[in-house]
Design brief:
alpha/beta, 7 strands, globular, 157 residues, 2 domains, Quinone Oxidoreductase, Chain A, domain 1
Length: 157
């Protein structure tokens, strides 16, 4: 979807296998945060400028690096906390770089309609990792906890 607005897409991943999948979906670059500090690579890729927007859904494990990846006046949208709910914020960085931190739990009905329309026409394809029966939901939760997921887990009733 970000390619629709002409943006460059950098992704962070925990394995090169996941990185290759992001490239297949249209990402411009992936950074395996287990092999290198992604904030340093982002700074190199953007010629020290930083990125305009970070979508952060991991939490404490990546939050600091996400803040360091932003340009002056950049926005960080946090929409999850896979690795925990408590994190530290460098207040000097926050005000000196005039950063914007936003929390997002979801989207508006208009956003949802727009995405559903794009899915219906094939412009956006959902990434589905696994489809499980309700009786197997624990397997899905274990996969989530182990971060062995690429895409959504669908639970059928």
């Amino acid at each position: 979807m970000i390619k629709d607005v002409g943006a460059i897409a950098y992704t962070t991943v925990g394995s090169d296998e996941k990185g290759e999948k992001t490239l297949a979906l249209g990402a411009d670059e992936f950074i395996n945060y287990k092999n290198e500090r992604f904030e340093g690579r982002i700074r190199r890729l953007t010629k020290k400028r930083g990125v305009d927007v970070v979508f952060e859904h991991i939490g404490p494990d990546t939050f600091k690096g996400s803040m360091l990846s932003m340009r002056r006046g950049g926005k960080l949208v946090t929409c999850g906390s896979t690795t925990g709910v408590m994190g530290e914020i460098n207040l000097n960085l926050l005000y000196q770089q005039q950063l914007h931190l936003l929390g997002s739990f979801g989207c508006t009905l208009g956003n949802m309609k727009s995405v559903m329309d794009k899915m219906a026409t094939g412009r956006v394809k959902p990434v589905i990792d696994t489809v499980l029966e309700l009786k197997d939901v624990e397997k899905g939760l274990i996969r989530l906890e182990n971060r062995d997921v690429f895409g959504k887990i669908i639970v059928k009733l």
